[in-house]
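Model it.
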Amino acid sequence: MIHPALKLRYVRLTRGFSQDALACATGIAQSRLSLGERGRLQFTDDELVTIARALDVANPRALLRSADERQRIARVLNI
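Modeled.
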């Protein structure tokens, strides 16, 4: 299974976003995005939803690896 941090980095890069551009689009500090991509911190549920929307990921849960994480995001999105 691909680590979620690597998955996020892959999606960000394939969408043509630098960390700085994603930081501007989301309001999340570039340093925080960097730490999250390296697996040094876990993004909050709201941050994950914001990141997914900025990257045009239809299902934010696709960026996550565990069923628990996917269920948490489903509650945030009310789906």
